[in-house]
Design a protein that fits this description.
Multidrug-efflux Transporter Regulator, Chain: A, Domain 2; Rossmann fold; single chain; five-stranded parallel beta sheet; two-stranded antiparallel sheet; 3 domains; alpha/beta
């Protein structure tokens, strides 16, 4: 069983911690347990509950009304949500539920059914990327088991590769982008999503993948001379030094601009570093790609 903080619930549901505390006081659907030091924590079941309630509340149901529903009534109301955005959010919630329960067969079935109905292109943009954005915080805080992460990651990686291979575009750019993750970074999904976006733009992509030594980066840059280097930093190990990484990058490939997205870009983005460009959100990534 996973244990979640109120901050996890806030990040995953979009409901502010202050509001969650008020709901706990007024209604019966959420009953957190507490540590010996009186800190709230929540179980798998409570996370699922808050995700479902947040979705119904967002699309018009009053909390007092939701509180009177039994489990079956709540599920029936979720299924009847007709807005396309609500449907997409419900699918993402289902993926989160199945991941937490280690129900990998159901996880893949939900995704495959969406692909059949909407196509791989819409699945990547409407389901896979929103899922990664919401669940990424759990990977950073270690509030899901590594087995859950690995199983889900492998399924999504397969779907992203299918999407990348199937891209057909009439847009073309002469720019070449080299995608890589530095040593000690193994979270590849954000980089694969960027690969997909770049290919849709018609860019030339050199994909090196995860855990790439900078000496290897230097070698490929000498031979292929890319216009940009691009990395997506999600969750670095404790011995990773960003300052050292930039110093070594400038030592090996000083003249090629480096674009950085991901969690680290959000924390380092105020710094001004020559030839390094931070993209702190998906709109900033899309803006960069649109200029190629």
């Amino acid at each position: 069983m996973n244990l979640f903080t109120i901050k996890d619930l806030e990040n995953l549901s979009g409901i502010k911690a202050h509001t969650i505390r008020i709901w706990e006081q007024r209604y019966s659907f959420l009953k957190p347990q507490r540590t010996e030091t009186n800190i709230r924590y929540y179980t798998n079941r409570e996370l699922k509950t808050i995700l479902n309630i947040a979705l119904l509340n967002k699309y018009g149901y009053k909390i007092s009304h939701i509180d009177r529903m039994n489990e079956q009534e709540l599920q029936n109301k979720l299924i009847t949500l007709s807005q396309s955005e609500a449907y997409q959010e419900r699918i993402v919630n289902e993926l989160i539920h199945h991941m937490i329960d280690l129900d990998i067969e159901s996880f893949e079935n939900v995704m495959d059914n969406y692909i059949i109905a909407k196509g791989i292109d819409k699945t990547i943009n409407q389901v896979i990327f929103p899922f990664l954005e919401r669940i990424g915080i759990l990977w950073l805080t270690n509030h899901i088991h590594p087995v859950q992460e690995h199983l889900v990651t492998n399924i999504i990686r397969q779907k992203l590769m299918v999407g990348i291979e199937g891209v057909v575009t009439h847009i073309h750019t002469e720019k070449t982008i080299l995608l890589f993750l530095p040593e000690s970074e193994h979270h590849e999904l954000g980089l694969l999503y960027t690969y997909y976006l770049l290919k849709k733009r018609g860019a030339r992509v050199l994909y090196l993948g995860a855990n790439v030594p900078l000496k290897d980066l230097e070698y490929i840059c000498q031979h292929k001379k890319p216009d940009f280097l691009y990395t997506h930093l999600t969750c670095m190990t404790g011995n990773f030094s960003f300052t050292k990484f930039i110093s070594l990058k400038n030592q090996y490939v000083k003249d090629i601009p480096l674009v950085i997205s991901g969690q680290l870009a959000q924390t380092q983005g105020k710094k001004i570093i020559p030839n390094v460009h931070f993209k702190k959100s998906i709109p900033e990534v899309l803006e960069f790609i649109s200029t190629l």
